[in-house]
Write a structure and sequence with these properties.
Four copies of one chain form a homotetramer. Chain A has 148 residues and is of the alpha+beta class. Chain A is 18% helix and 34% strand. Chain A contains two helices and five strands, in the order βαββββα. The longest helix of chain A is centred in the N-terminal third of the chain and has 18 residues, at 38-55. Chains B and D meet through loops of B and loops of D.
Chain lengths: 148, 148, 148, 148
């Protein structure tokens, strides 16, 4: 997402995303105003991204020598979401660098067309022990390109 | 749950529960050992209970004059669960008092027969402003008895 | 805590606890009723316990071969707490077994004498890889006895 | 924060911030890699901001007719933080609009000079029932200008 221009919900569509997951909201997600707390959206985002990585065997929580470290993250909130209910989360890749990838997750209320929030983050891939950047593997590059 | 005796997983079965919900685990649920943190199970439990209350129109988050306040809670952990994945949560009522109800939630890994954890809590129903106990309505009593 | 008898706030006093930590509440801790969500108390409890273990060098998150696994937990809620504010958490040991220890944490609003909530859990110590119970070390036994 | 240029930790200093709060980390904040999860930083950020609003009597959780709704948020992560420990959070105002304010929170490990993470969000002030934007009150404008 380019933050230099004012983004509108109509800039995003369910058709923009090919990989989907459903996140079930929780009672504790709601804040005192009865809406999902802003920090909680980021826990949806990294659950979706990491599940993609695990499904595509790009990440093994216990054994992978290369792990993704979050360098920056951002989210834009258009329409509040609330527990109870399920959030449809669509994932795409916005930028593919030499050692990093930037994901975008569109979050939609179930059966609604208009996007509720759009967020994402940049993963820098590093070796687990020293945290030095590592080039993306061919496997990663290939998997991420299916999300571009 | 009676805590005076040592409970075993075989004391609980999927057949004990008639009302079910699925909770999707999140990346942040895992602790440093790679298992769902013990506190997080309680967020599953009260999500399931409150969704039941809302579905059966026993609770309206904004308007209900009588709300449930948690008086005590407990959980027994038999087998660790982990993100990613979905937790099957079965709900039943263990005790129905004059102003309170005690719920039990059995938590199972998807497609597994053995219970992973069993927890629950006691809701005391009180008026929203003064927090004074109120007798269960007939509607509540009837809905809870379907879970007994 | 023995759950077979009805516990009252007056059964607990700040003087019962010798080890103390302060937990700062968070905006997201409050639920829709404006009170700390019941699941969140358990995140206070295991933060206090694990910090004790780390301070007394009984646990090294990365290197310890023996780790504590939560077997059961429970909490009793007497008085609701809310963000903003700090919670004074007192820790004591309720039972010391061969391979396990049961902690109790009394939670108090700052500058208040009456206890707000009392909870705890049982840690079974196991080897990290196989999760088989291991007897408490002398170091542990000695540290825990200062909290009894 | 302007995201169009690559920000460095040296762009931020403890002297940039006049309003401070300490957040105690929690066991559950750590992810499987032993570092505070990225979503959790946002729960620090909005705890600090809302506590400021409450302290300066700009927000009453129960009674305020005008509340702040988060329109966008972002964070940049320079150095990982971990439980146990305390995070020093400094708050300043980055932009003051007609109906909105953009906060920045610098997060520092205790007794460290280098910033660990810098994040923030934009609050749009709206009436509680209809969520229509409302101009900042003079009280708000005056309080926020002390943080500019």
């Amino acid at each position: 997402m380019n933050s230099s221009r004012k983004l509108k919900p109509s800039d995003f569509s369910r058709r923009d995303y090919t990989y989907w997951q459903q996140v079930s909201t929780r009672w504790v997600d709601n804040d005192v105003y009865g809406h999902i707390n802003n920090a909680v959206y980021f826990s949806y985002i990294d659950s979706v991204v990491n599940q993609f990585l695990i499904e595509y065997q790009l990440l093994d929580l216990e054994k992978s020598e290369v792990i993704g470290v979050v360098a920056q993250s951002q989210c834009r909130f258009f329409q509040s979401l609330s527990y109870p209910g399920v959030v449809d989360c669509g994932l795409r890749v916005r930028h593919l660098g030499k050692t990093s990838v930037s994901y975008e997750v569109g979050m939609f209320e179930q059966d609604k067309e208009a996007v509720a929030a759009v967020g994402g983050f940049t993963h820098v891939f590093v070796d687990r022990s020293q945290h030095r950047p590592r080039p993306l593997s061919e496997l990663m590059r290939s998997a991420f390109s299916t999300l571009a």
